[in-house]
Amino acid sequence: MENLSIIMIEDDEELAYLLSNFLKQYNLNVTNYADPFLGISALSIEKYDLLILDLSLPGLDGLDICKEVREKSDIPIIISSARSDVEDKIIGLDLGADDYLPKPYEPKELYARIMSVLRRYRKDDRNVEQKSNFVLNEDARTISFKNEVLKLTQAEYEVLSTLIERAGCVVSRRDLIRLAPSLGDESESRSLDVLISRIRTKINDNSKNPEFLHSVRGIGYRLNR
Known about the structure:
By secondary structure, the chain is α/β, with parallel strands linked by helices. The strands form 4 sheets. The chain has a 5-stranded parallel beta sheet with strand order 2-1-3-6-7, sandwiched between helices. Strands 8-9-10 form a 3-stranded antiparallel beta sheet, with helices on one face.
């Protein structure tokens, strides 16, 4: 099985350690955040395959996190909670969670739920891929937008392909510059902003009211596919 990256927001660090060790044997690499605010920050920067979310967290309710994450990303979400209120389950699923697993449970049940959710997403992805506005062909090193191949410079391709691979997540300026070697010695200047502007022009995206390529002040950029 391929290695998958999972983010867990769980303040019970002993449970998080137990689950992480169990899932590791199935090539599921878990990064846990006991602090929900750090977890949300990580979700906006890094690319993960699935989120395991507790509800009873210090300083922030898990249902609020679920709502915020679903508004910004289509990452699969499994709620793992000791809260047994049926209303919490209904609200969580209504907010966009894919599954709700009440504690306590066996780690192998969590594994089964993870694989079930991922299979559904992969099936949906095969159907959605044909509808995506951006299609990345890494072998040909081309990017199509609305079924037309874009005419891109090497640097534009490097930046846009990175954004496509992390679609829905904020990619920092530092990462974009690091992953676009064609920017060369000008990487310390505003060349990245100029390049983003050129990409927007090629996809007819209005910088003042963007549909696809969004600027996140002080951090970087996010692409909506």
